[in-house]
Specification:
Number of strands of chain A: 16
Protein name (chains A, B): Glutathione synthase substrate-binding domain-containing protein
Number of helices of chain A: 17
GO molecular function (chains A, B): ATP binding; glutathione binding; glutathione synthase activity
Strand content of chain A: 15-25%
InterPro entries (chains A, B): Glutathione_synthase (IPR005615), Glutathione_synthase_C_euk (IPR014709), Glutathione_synthase_N_euk (IPR014049), GSH-S_sub-bd_sf (IPR037013), GSH_synth_subst-bd (IPR004887), PreATP-grasp_dom_sf (IPR016185)
Structural class of chain A: alpha+beta
Shape of chain A: globular
Distance between the termini of chain A: 32 Å
Pfam families (chains A, B): GSH_synth_ATP (PF03917), GSH_synthase (PF03199)
Radius of gyration of chain A: 22 Å
Oligomer: homodimer
Helix content of chain A: 40-55%
Chain lengths: 478, 478
């Protein structure tokens, strides 16, 4: 039918700073492994996690929740139970039809890019969200491992965010080559100057993993600390899979009961509601900072709907430019937008240079950061999510600076893939020789896609002696 | 935003045979009273009702259910509690936004006519269904009255359907002027010739009412015995209204608890599932007979989804032409379509001449009627739903032929509006003199709109001495 089915995955802009080791046999989904935009059976290894730290009221309590997307299968050694590509065509056709109907009736939707207003107005120009038709078997032990890692990573993000010097020092070189990170660091510095404290800190993170088939290791690709998408639609995909397997599981040899529960949306909403209660003004709203056009609006609307229905908390959708125009700081630091006091600033935008086309957007970001509203994320949490920090944390003895529990540290380290900066000429040489073993990852969030070394190697050799900035710009112009 | 908000109403083709008395002050929704396709606050008085009669197993049991669409307000004398058109514009804007989001997340959708494939493929080209933003206050006593009438009308339809002579005699004149009804009567005659019995009879009806403000009477407009639409989406509108009033009811002076429960979809599905069980073959399916292009497919998909999820009953969607191509009758009368035995034929098409563009569709209709599958409706039930039969039943002493309970008869008669054929020259004269007091209704179901006498009066005077056929054709050409 010409429609495309693929898992929702989080992709990033075409700029690079770090290298991430991965193997071509990794079973996790990579878009470029499916060049034909038609049928795909695959799976995304993503862990949504929530993290709320309240310093003033309960100094030592971490209200970490963790929620998961994915379907598990016991044991590492078992391969997929069925040959997905051998499924009877008539059966696939029926499943596709049922899945399309299910998506329509249950709000698994996005705006259709061919309809102009679909990113502006809800209820018009809707099309089913892209999804994998069936869950991909995934070892239960690794799934449990990812589940266990979530609160430890949350704790780590929080601890690192409090070490301003570590952040500034680690990103000092990045600052010189990346104007965007430089602006973020400037805001961070300003907050340090005014001695701004965030007593209530809220993180809604998503950690992405790949399963390395050769070493049988679960390796972290990245941790998203800003604007982690698909908590709303992701759990619907689990429901869809469960429903399909209820009807067709017997023919496929798949058991719907093995599809794990995925409460991403309710957990995100619980964390937001908990933070809202801590802010302690029943009339205050949650400010959802959004793009001027957002075709993924229904993923966000699910959270707003659950907040309203389950917790009677209202959300206010505004773009950065609108916040610049409407937003005001009261003398006590209270943020007021559209005449309403803001309890939480929840970013679903702001992670990429394209989100700040003018000074207006930067003014809005600074205004919100200066306020006493809870930021999700704060500028510090945002900076912790950069690849450069991920790389620093992977260095020997760095985790020990932030975490006390040796077991926790060992667990984190076990899932770290090798991470190298392009400063390291030995590793760059190795990458040029064996491009299939590496993936190039950008420094920051958001955008179009990963940059696969195997296709970049020619360009890379030609620019390897130039500066990093040059290298990045070279690619951006392509 | 340029989108249109209106209640889902059932409208009919532009052909005429009967006159129905109504008053211009009637509070029920009439599309032509809202010429501007923008904002509308109104309400549809429709009663969905289900009727399953099983003759062989339980001869005297009527498994009638009745479900309602609408919102009530106690007492007849109270006017609307708020001036809908005086609501603050900002509040309306918020409610519209929330309603559009709610519709998208909860499957209150139709195919967008501007997207070519939206009537063919689910999950593409979707737009929110048209809906009224708020419920219209409606007297509880009349709502209860309609609720009480449902099983009596069901009983009446069933009794009349069994009187073949009454049907043939009553429609004998119609047969001469209406080729479509003539074809239906031919099938009916053929069934009489082969002495075809329908031991299990299933009716999924919708009765439409208008509230006459002058006489304070609830008057029946028509009873739909074939392809009654919006059981799926209709109850979502009640949920939408309840949700909106939960959030905005206080500002509007409306209480969400006063929006009555509307279980139309589940009741329809329960009746279908009950009939399916009576058919007694766990492998048999329900054949959903559909249009080749159906933008109202989600209304139907809700029923299929509830049948599958709640009762593990599968539906098969086929057009009349496809049934002609694929359908087979086994020697014992079993209907097989696409290799699957059919327990129930559920028509969501077949009510209008346009649904039968060739002999192929008529062959399919005959094939299904000859089968031992349960028809919803049978040809007899279909014929009972014509306006001519409605008119006959309104004549003195006719109801008494079919019903025994005098109270039931009185209840039905109380809701009958005056009905006249165009044969009656006195009433035609009166209608020409006072067009605002009459509405012209077509003989059969489906199509575009009612024909309001006030705008038809000029045409009418010019053709009044011609035959009915001429009269109808004259209008069809306009």
């Amino acid at each position: 039918m010409g429609t495309s089915y693929s898992s929702c995955y989080h992709s990033t802009t075409l700029s690079t700073h770090s290298l991430l080791l991965s193997h071509p046999k990794a079973s996790a989904f990579h878009p470029s492994r499916f060049p034909n935009p038609s049928f795909k059976f695959h799976f995304t290894n993503q862990i949504h996690q929530t993290h709320l730290r309240i310093m003033s009221q309960k100094p030592s309590q971490v209200l970490g929740g963790k929620v998961e997307v994915g379907e598990t299968q016991e044991g590492v050694s078992k391969g997929p139970m069925i040959d997905f590509h051998g499924i009877d065509e008539g059966l696939v056709e029926k499943m596709v039809y049922d899945a399309l109907v299910w998506s329509s009736l249950h709000g698994l939707l996005v705006g259709d890019k061919s309809v102009q207003r679909s990113g502006k107005v809800p209820g018009v120009g809707m099309v089913h969200a892209p999804f994998a038709l069936l869950p991909m078997p995934f070892p239960e032990c690794h799934w449990k491992q990812a589940y266990e890692l979530a609160p430890i990573f949350n704790e780590l993000v929080d601890r690192v965010s409090l070490d301003a010097k570590f952040l500034q020092d680690s990103l000092s070189r990045t600052k010189k080559v990346d104007a965007f990170t430089c602006r973020l660091l400037d805001i961070h510095s300003k907050m340090l100057e005014i001695n701004k404290k965030e007593d209530i800190r809220l993180g809604l993170h998503r950690s992405d993993y790949m399963l390395d088939e050769e070493t049988k290791l679960l390796l972290q690709i990245e941790m998203n600390t800003i604007s982690a998408s698909f908590p709303g639609l992701g759990c619907l995909v689990s429901d869809l899979h469960r429903g399909l397997l209820n009807h067709y599981g017997e023919s496929l040899g798949l058991d719907s009961k093995r599809v794990p529960n995925n409460p991403a949306a309710t957990k995100f909403v619980e964390a937001l509601a908990k933070a809202w209660i801590e802010y302690n003004n029943p009339r205050a709203v949650i400010l959802l900072v959004v793009q001027p056009e957002e075709r993924n609006m229904y993923d966000q609307h699910w959270l707003s709907a659950l907040l309203k229905e389950g917790h009677n908390v209202s959300t206010l959708r505004r773009t950065l430019a609108e916040i610049d125009a409407e937003g005001k700081l009261q003398p006590d630091g209270t943020l007021v937008v559209g005449g309403q006091e803001v309890a939480i600033v929840y970013f679903r935008v702001g992670y990429a240079p394209i989100n700040y086309p003018s000074e207006s957007e930067w003014r809005a970001r600074l205004l919100m950061e200066q306020s006493s509203a809870i930021k999700c994320p704060s500028i510090s949490y945002h900076l912790v999510g950069t690849k450069k920090i991920q790389q620093e944390l992977a260095k020997p003895n760095v985790l020990e600076r932030f975490l006390d529990d040796k077991e926790d540290i060992a667990k984190l380290r076990k899932c770290f893939a090798g991470l190298w900066s392009l400063d390291d000429s030995d590793i760059v040489k190795k990458a040029i020789e064996s491009p299939g073993l590496f993936v190039m990852k950008p420094q920051r969030e958001g955008g179009v896609k990963w940059f696969k070394l195997c296709s970049a190697v020619v360009v890379m050799t030609s620019v390897i002696n130039e500066s990093l900035l040059h290298f990045r710009e070279q690619h951006l112009r392509q």
